[in-house]
Fold this sequence. Notes:
Layout: E1 4-8, H1 9-22, E2 28-35, E3 41-47, E4 54-56, E5 59-61, H2 64-77, E6 83-92, H3 100-110, E7 121-127, E8 132-145, E9 148-155, E10 157-161
Bound molecules: zinc ion.
Amino acid sequence: xxxxxxxxxxxxxxxxxxxxxxxxxxxxxxxxxxxxxxxxxxxxxxxxxxxxxxxxxxxxxxxxxxxxxxxxxxxxxxxxxxxxxxxxxxxxxxxxxxxxxxxxxxxxxxxxxxxxxxxxxxxxxxxxxxxxxxxxxxxxxxxxxxxxxxxxxxxxxxxxxx
Length: 162
Ligand SMILES: [Zn+2]
């Protein structure tokens, strides 16, 4: 179960730069790419927050219209090979672990068929001021356990690639 989260080094640097730009407020966007046959997640590009995004000290609301347009364009230029994988956002001066709100967001993406991904990823950039760290968490399905519907999350191994 050593599933990996592959991200190009320039893309990771781009995320950190966006984090710096909004620091100490949160920022984020979408992860684009594909899932390999061995279930590894391969990020090829990201989408940034968009001009109408709302950045708060604890919270971030993306510019949905911008995101959708960028996603459609990326889908088109890759002949549908690269799609939406999940979301990313920063925790300025914070850790790379998911907050309760982040977990709710991730489960909502998982149960929204139109998202196109049943096992979405959430990447968190924690820290800041030129010292970021990143984690990637994958939703891996519902488990019915009385009295609650529970779900499992998996921490992916981060792999930067050239
Ligand atoms: Zn968060």
